[in-house]
């Protein structure tokens, strides 16, 4: 068993407290980032920045892919480019809108 002085003990305790505070701050920051991300990906497609044409194609012509007016951005991340481009009235421009939207959230399809 190693013996330490009261002074060494108090210094060690201060270091532990300092790191505990830093860890708590980091955890809060991570939680904020996560909540912000979740807020964005759970926005309805109809409330997104996508064009009206893209939204209409996704919500009315993609029921076979499980999309409708209640679908959310996160649902788009589950689809492939090939699935998206084969949606009726969903052209290349709409595809790139979706890709840009997902890329802005660091989601790749």
Beta-strand percentage? under 5%
What characterizes the major β-sheet?
none
Shape: rod-shaped
Structural category? mainly alpha
Q: Termini distance?
A: 57 Å
| Rg | 24 Å
The average pLDDT score comes to 95
- The number of domains: 2
Tell me the number of strands: 0
- Counting DSSP H or I runs of 4 or more residues, the number of helices is 5
Element order: H for helix, E for strand: HHHHH
Low-confidence stretches: none
Structure characterization notes:
The chain is mainly alpha-helical and 109 residues long. It has 2 domains: 1-41; 44-104. The chain has helices spanning 6-41, 52-60, 73-76, 81-85, 92-104. The longest helix is centred in the first third of the chain and has 36 residues, at 6-41. The chain is rod-shaped and about 75 Å long. 16% of the residues are buried. The model has no long low-confidence stretch (mean pLDDT 95).
Task: Give a brief outline of the structure.
This protein has 109 residues and is mainly alpha-helical. 61% of the residues lie in helices and 0% in strands. It has two domains: 1-41; 44-104.
Task: Give the key terms.
mainly alpha
Write the layout of secondary structure elements.
Layout: H1 6-41, H2 52-60, H3 73-76, H4 81-85, H5 92-104
């Amino acid at each position: 068993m190693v013996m330490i002085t009261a002074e060494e003990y108090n210094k060690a305790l201060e270091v532990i407290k300092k790191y505990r505070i830093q860890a708590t701050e980091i955890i809060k920051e991570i939680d904020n980032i996560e909540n912000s991300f979740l807020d964005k990906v759970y926005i309805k497609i109809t409330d997104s920045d996508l064009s009206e044409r893209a939204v209409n194609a996704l919500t009315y012509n993609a029921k076979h892919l499980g999309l409708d007016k209640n679908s959310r951005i996160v649902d788009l991340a589950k689809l492939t480019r090939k699935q998206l481009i084969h949606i009726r009235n969903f052209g290349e421009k709409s595809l790139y809108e979706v890709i840009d939207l997902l890329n802005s959230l660091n989601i790749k399809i």
